[in-house]
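Quick one, tokens below:
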């Protein structure tokens, strides 16, 4: 069977193809747009934590880290969207290598690498659970190498952190 191409459709094919490619790329970019809120002012965050009487889940991450993106999409983003976690924990992220200095929980300007090392974030992803003074209130979760059990470890750490600040 012979296909008939109208004279108008042939010139439009490259434009249509380009449009479809751009739409596909745009939709892919929008699908990855959801991320955890980044923070660099821990003194201001401390005030929110005190007011709401909630611990902080701080996700140390890096842009190049595939496991960080996987952890965010499989656990952190769904947690942020779920009202169940709104009254249990505050979730923020800290991208290693993004800034040079941050404001620590006591208001001091601190080197970002020193801050990360202080909280044991030598690899990414690392999740730490802190009270409003910056003190650890649950065991950190280092890496993301056992996704099958990660949810249980994460829930346990959140429960421990929440109980510690109540």
């Amino acid at each position: 069977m012979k296909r008939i191409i109208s004279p108008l459709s042939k010139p439009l094919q490259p434009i249509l193809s380009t449009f479809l490619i751009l739409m596909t790329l745009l939709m892919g970019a929008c699908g990855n747009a959801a991320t955890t809120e980044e923070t660099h002012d821990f003194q201001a965050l401390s005030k929110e934590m005190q007011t709401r009487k909630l611990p902080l889940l701080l996700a140390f991450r890096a842009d190049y880290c595939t496991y960080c993106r996987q952890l965010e999409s499989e656990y952190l983003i769904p947690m942020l969207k779920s009202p169940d976690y709104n009254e249990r924990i505050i979730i923020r992220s800290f991208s290693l290598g993004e800034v040079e200095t941050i404001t620590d929980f006591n208001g001091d300007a601190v080197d970002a690498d020193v801050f990360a090392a202080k909280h044991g974030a030598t690899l990414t992803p690392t999740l730490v659970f802190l009270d409003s003074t910056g003190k650890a209130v649950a065991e950190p979760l280092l890496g993301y190498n056992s996704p099958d059990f990660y949810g249980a470890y994460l829930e346990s750490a959140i429960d421990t952190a929440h109980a510690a600040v109540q």
